């Protein structure tokens, strides 16, 4: 970093101070350390390890409707993978997944950061307003998508009625009915759903930045944008990177919202890898192919995770 | 002084406006829940001819389910935090080559579609007799709570200076006691954040509720809502009314928790 | 708890010997075993998707009366409609299928093909006197696997007041339908509402037009099928139907009709109870129009069949079959049809039914000639249905012409 930034952690990272007190407590302490992580390890293996292995195996089998009744699932090697990758819809689903993920996250994050900064200034009712902002999250997705579907309805939906009423548009926008607009509308709804999450996490990140940093910055003339750039952003980076990482991982597998709004239509304009995987498993009952697609999905997220870990490690090393 | 009061007032006004935009769909839902036909097509901006039929039905049929959801969500928060917090601390403070492996595992866990987990848990639960049970649903919901809480808590705990705990250790406290006495209080804000999200994840869970229950006994409210959407009959005003009702206890809790966050922030947890 | 486990172990031991015994004597004296051991069956488990009132309690009544007739208690589980198959699969893999299982009729063959269901012919049931279309739907490989007490189909609902005001008579041909829809379209109101969404529901609503015109799912690239699709395209492009039909469900179409935003709709009789909740909307029903005069309207058969999953416990399996038989008794068919605005499946009951419920006349007439979706393609029907709804989506969004849409949708 070219400019000196004020962060909390600079003084903390030094030579390992724990070394001094090692020795007789050494073995007992290792055991304690193990006990810190053991419950989590067990939970992770049970809740994730087992399902993942099961899914991997399934993707290599001809696992269909019949399998559930007879238990027969012949091994087919990579055939499920070649089937799904050579499908007509695969490339479109990939592009849609990318657009959906990038579009959703970019706007969720920027809007979320803006709102978090806004709420960080203390003003009457700020806390209450911020909690109410979480409301969209509380609604069952099935209800949210039904509500949005009625809002976005081309002819009688309140959005088009309002927009034509105030003269922004002349003709009603076919939000969910045109292959060229539907993806944008679906992304819009997903942004709406994701904003509360982003605001809350970024707000807690902001709240943890000690006020002294800003006071010290003020003496150096760091106010407004400069304060944001040299104080807020560097201190927020850890939270922001976790948030963006999680954003990618969560958004890439979004299913319910798309199914609720368009079901992948119109004319497959909103098909993503997740909806395709769902369709293959639960509409076509080709569970092997569905598993192959969800493994592809997991693999893509995995690549992001590696990038994330490398970048954070670099940050730690600095 | 008055100048800043005015400015803060302006902020409140802007905040309310932002909220109005963000919550419009929620309002629209409330509006629909009061419409006689339960359908939003004829709805004006205001429910001029409100009916509470949907609410009467929802209250009489979904009361128990709301309690069930509350118990499950609270259980998920407790269990998730109990498991995640020590692990987050370990991942942020202990130096070991296993740390990045652990982090990677957690991230991978977040990539797994819920349906994959649900299907695997179903078979396991069947053998363990955990189907149709509140503990079963709590454990399942921890699959979203635990990894998330670990990541959030760790990213905050990274900034804790090791010297904090070291000071206590010099005074003779064990690692665990130091953790409880020093790390936990300092991490209050992030604990609340992580708990809040665990609560929300669990509260809005539908997938596990659907797959891990096979009969009526234990039924979270999200599943209750789904029951109103029949194959051939749909009761939109009851659906919307239940959604509104299900939001109320959660809102109360959220507003209460926010106070803690604000208080913690003002107190300046890290001195 | 412990004693329960012991009983379970004993039970499985006895069933094993029963199976062995059955293998030995080739199951020839099925009647004998059923009558001697039938009395030991005390309870039956049931799974269906009537999870919502009034259907839920109306069905419960029918189930209860059969239970008391057979002297058993029932444990019924209801799940939301679109999760039924998933539930069935879970239960199949854990060997916990119910004794009596309800399935939507187009799913019966697919499930029967897995070998999970017991052939009902061997258990003393038959499809004699049942509408051929329904027997087709619930048979697989020449054996009967399910019986549906009642059925339904779709037809054209119209708002009597709106047609009267516009001086339009209920349409009988496609040309009349298009003209009527056009005349009835006004600002804030469409002439007709239907469902053309990207699900099996969208394919189902297309079938009256496709089949009536002589189209067939075995050859979806035929001109007859394309003509039927052209009808949908014309209705949407002329503005007589909303462009939103590609996302609407049948429930949405009903909502539009009830809200006075559509003068006609394609829908089924199951909407009648909810139409009755808004008495100011007056409506009538006619059969779905034909393309050219002289064609016979052919509509798809809806409705759910009751099946008996294979059970090692022969006595229980027989009891379950008896239960299905009871559900399909004349009295029960009529009772369910009347209460739930559906149509009995036994042809002998149709005249009596129409006499007693005149408002169901049109649907009952349409059922006589109706076809099942799986009658021709069997368990391959879902693939054809997928091509159908995708072709509709392509054509209605202007991505392909009605002629090309089916070719494109089938990957050609």
In words, what does this structure look like?
Chain B: It is found in: Cell membrane. The complex is a heterotrimer of chains A (318), B (271) and C (412). Chain A contains 14 helices and no strands. Chain A is mainly α and 318 residues long. Chain A has one domain (90-317): MetI-like fold (Orthogonal Bundle). In chain A, helix 1 (26-59) packs antiparallel against helix 14. Mean pLDDT of chain A is 83; it is low at 1-23. Chain B is an all-alpha fold. Chain B has two domains: 1-46, no CATH class; 52-267, MetI-like (MetI-like fold), CATH 1.10.3720.10. Chain B has eleven helices and no strands. The two termini of chain B are 29 Å apart. A five-stranded mixed sheet of chain C has the order 2-1-3-12-6, sandwiched between helices. A four-stranded mixed sheet of chain C has the order 9-10-8-11. In chain C, a hairpin with a 2-residue loop joins strand 4 (139-140) and strand 5. The longest helix of chain C has 23 residues, at 2-24. The chains are: A mainly alpha (318), B mainly alpha (271), C alpha/beta (412).
Compact overview of the structure:
Chain A: The chain crosses the membrane at residues 34-53, 98-119, 131-151, 181-206, 227-252, 290-309. The complex is a heterotrimer of chains A (318), B (271) and C (412). Chain B has helices spanning 2-33, 53-93, 98-111, 114-128, 134-157, 162-170, 175-186, 188-203, 207-211, 221-227, 236-267.
For the structure shown, list the relevant keywords:
heterotrimer, A: 318 residues, mainly alpha, MetI-like fold, disordered N terminus, C: 412 residues, alpha/beta, D-Maltodextrin-Binding Protein, domain 2, 2 domains, five-stranded mixed beta sheet, four-stranded mixed beta sheet, 18 helices, 13 strands, 12% strand
Secondary-structure map with pairings?
The complex is a heterotrimer of chains A (318), B (271) and C (412).
Chain A: H1 26-59, H2 65-70, H3 79-85, H4 88-120, H5 126-132, H6 135-138, H7 141-152, H8 158-165, H9 182-207, H10 211-219, H11 224-252, H12 256-261, H13 273-283, H14 287-317
Helix pairs in contact in A: 1-14, 3-14, 4-9, 4-11, 9-11, 11-14, 13-14
Chain B: H1 2-33, H2 53-93, H3 98-111, H4 114-128, H5 134-157, H6 162-170, H7 175-186, H8 188-203, H9 207-211, H10 221-227, H11 236-267
Chain C: H1 2-24, H2 30-37, E1 43-48, H3 55-70, E2 73-78, H4 84-93, E3 100-104, H5 105-113, H6 132-138, E4 139-140, E5 143-144, E6 146-147, E7 150-151, E8 155-159, H7 160-166, H8 174-184, E9 190-193, H9 200-212, H10 223-237, H11 250-258, E10 262-267, H12 272-276, E11 283-286, E12 304-307, H13 314-327, H14 330-340, E13 343-344, H15 347-356, H16 361-369, H17 381-396, H18 402-409
Parallel strand pairs in C: 1-2, 1-3, 9-10
Antiparallel strand pairs in C: 3-12, 4-5, 6-12, 7-13, 8-10, 8-11
Helix pairs in contact in C: 3-13, 3-14, 9-10, 9-17, 10-17, 10-18, 17-18
């Amino acid at each position: 970093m070219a400019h000196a930034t004020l962060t909390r952690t600079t003084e903390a990272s030094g030579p390992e101070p724990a070394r001094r007190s090692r020795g007789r407590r050494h073995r007992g302490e290792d055991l304690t350390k193990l006990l810190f992580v053991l419950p989590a390890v067990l939970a992770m293996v049970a809740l994730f390890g087992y399902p993942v292995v099961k899914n991997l195996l399934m993707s290599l089998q001809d696992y269909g409707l019949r399998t559930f009744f007879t238990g027969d699932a012949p091994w087919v090697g990579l055939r499920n993978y070649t089937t799904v990758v050579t499908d007509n819809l695969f490339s479109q689903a990939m592009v849609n997944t990318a657009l959906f993920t990038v579009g959703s996250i970019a706007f969720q994050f920027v809007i979320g950061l803006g709102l978090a900064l806004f709420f960080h200034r203390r003003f009457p009712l700020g806390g209450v307003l911020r909690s109410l902002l979480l409301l969209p999250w509380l609604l069952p997705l099935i209800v949210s998508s039904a509500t949005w579907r009625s809002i976005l309805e081309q002819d009688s939906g309140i959005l088009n009625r309002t927009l034509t009423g105030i003269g922004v548009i002349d003709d009603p926008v076919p939000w969910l009915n045109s292959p060229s607009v539907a993806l944008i509308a679906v992304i819009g709804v997903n942004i709406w759903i994701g904003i509360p999450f982003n605001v809350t996490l970024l707000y807690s990140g902001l709240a943890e930045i000690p006020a002294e940093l800003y006071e010290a910055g003020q003496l150096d003339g760091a106010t407004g944008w400069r304060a944001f750039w040299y104080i807020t952003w560097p201190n927020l980076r850890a939270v922001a990177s976790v948030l963006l990482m999680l954003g990618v991982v969560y958004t890439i597998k979004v299913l319910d919202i798309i199914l609720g709004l368009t079901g992948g239509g119109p004319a497959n304009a909103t098909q993503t890898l997740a909806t395709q995987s769902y369709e293959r498993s639960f509409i076509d009952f080709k569970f092997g192919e569905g598993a192959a697609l969800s493994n592809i999905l997991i693999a893509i997220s995995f690549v992001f995770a590696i990038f994330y870990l490398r970048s954070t490690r670099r940050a730690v090393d600095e | 002084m008055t100048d800043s009061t005015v400015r803060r007032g302006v902020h409140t006004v802007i905040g309310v406006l932002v909220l109005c935009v963000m919550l419009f769909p929620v309002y629209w839902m409330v509006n629909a829940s009061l419409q006689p036909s339960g359908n939003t097509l004829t709805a004006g901006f205001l429910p001029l001819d409100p009916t509470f039929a949907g609410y009467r039905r929802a209250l009489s049929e979904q009361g128990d389910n709301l309690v069930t959801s509350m118990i499950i969500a609270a259980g998920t928060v407790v269990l998730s935090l109990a498991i995640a917090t020590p692990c987050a601390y370990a991942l942020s403070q202990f130096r070991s080559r296993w740390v990045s492996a652990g982090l990677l595992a957690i991230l991978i866990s977040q990539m797994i579609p819920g349906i994959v987990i649900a299907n695997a848990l179903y078979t396991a639960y069947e053998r363990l007799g955990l189907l149709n049970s509140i503990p079963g649903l709590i454990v399942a919901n921890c699959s979203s709570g635990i990894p998330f809480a670990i990541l959030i808590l760790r990213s905050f705990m990274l900034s804790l200076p090791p010297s904090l705990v070291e000071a206590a250790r010099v005074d003779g406290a064990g690692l665990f006691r130091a953790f409880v006495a020093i790390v936990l209080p300092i991490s209050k804000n992030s604990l609340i954040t992580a708990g809040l999200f665990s609560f929300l994840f669990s509260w809005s869970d539908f997938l596990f509720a659907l797959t891990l229950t096979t009969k009526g006994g234990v039924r979270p409210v999200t599943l209750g809502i789904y029951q109103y959407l029949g194959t051939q009959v749909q009761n939109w005003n009851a659906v919307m009314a239940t959604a509104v009702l299900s939001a109320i206890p959660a809102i109360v809790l959220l507003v209460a928790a926010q106070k803690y966050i604000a208080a913690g922030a003002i107190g300046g947890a890290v001195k | 708890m412990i004693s329960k486990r012991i009983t379970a172990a004993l039970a499985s031991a006895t069933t094993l010997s029963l199976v062995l015994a059955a293998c030995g004597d080739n199951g020839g004296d099925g009647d004998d075993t059923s009558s001697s051991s039938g009395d030991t069956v005390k309870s039956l488990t049931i799974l269906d998707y009537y999870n919502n009132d009034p259907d839920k309690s109306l069905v419960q009544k029918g189930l209860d009366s059969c239970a008391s007739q057979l002297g058993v208690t029932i444990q019924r589980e209801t799940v939301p409609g679109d999760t039924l198959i998933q539930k069935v699969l879970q239960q199949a893999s854990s060997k916990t299928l119910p004794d009596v299982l309800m399935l939507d009729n187009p799913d019966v063959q697919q499930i029967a093909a897995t070998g999970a269901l017991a052939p009902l012919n061997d258990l003393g049931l038959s499809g004699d006197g049942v509408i051929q279309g329904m027997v087709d739907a619930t048979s697989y490989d020449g054996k009967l696997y399910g019986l549906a007490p009642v059925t339904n189909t779709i037809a054209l609902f119209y708002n009597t007041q709106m047609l009267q005001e516009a001086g339009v008579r209920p349409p009988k041909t496609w040309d009349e339908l298009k003209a009527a829809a056009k005349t009835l379209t006004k600002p804030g109101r469409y002439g007709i509402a239907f469902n053309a969404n990207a699900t099996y529901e969208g394919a189902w609503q297309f079938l009256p037009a496709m089949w009536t015109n002589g189209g067939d799912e075995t050859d979806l690239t035929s001109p007859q099928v394309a003509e039927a699709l052209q009808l949908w395209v014309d209705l949407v492009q002329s503005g007589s139907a909303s462009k939103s039909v590609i996302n609407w469900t049948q429930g949405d179409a009903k909502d539009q009709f009830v809200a006075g935003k559509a003068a006609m709709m394609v829908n089924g009789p199951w909407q009648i109870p909810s139409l009755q909740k808004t008495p100011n909307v007056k409506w009538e029903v006619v059969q779905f129009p034909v393309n050219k005069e002289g064609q016979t309207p052919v509509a798809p058969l809806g409705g759910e069949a009751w099946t008996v999953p294979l059970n090692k416990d022969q006595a229980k399996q027989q009891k379950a079959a008896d239960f299905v038989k009871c559900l399909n008794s004349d009295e029960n068919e009529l009772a369910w049809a009347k209460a739930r605005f559906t149509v009995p499946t036994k042809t002998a009951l149709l005249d009596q039914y129409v006499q007693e419920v005149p408002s169901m006349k049109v649907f009952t007439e349409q059922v006589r000639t109706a076809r099942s979706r799986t009658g021709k393609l069997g368990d391959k029907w879902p693939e054809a249905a997928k091509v159908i709804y995708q072709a509709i989506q392509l054509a209605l969004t202007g991505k392909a012409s009605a002629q090309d849409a089916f070719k494109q949708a089938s990957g050609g």
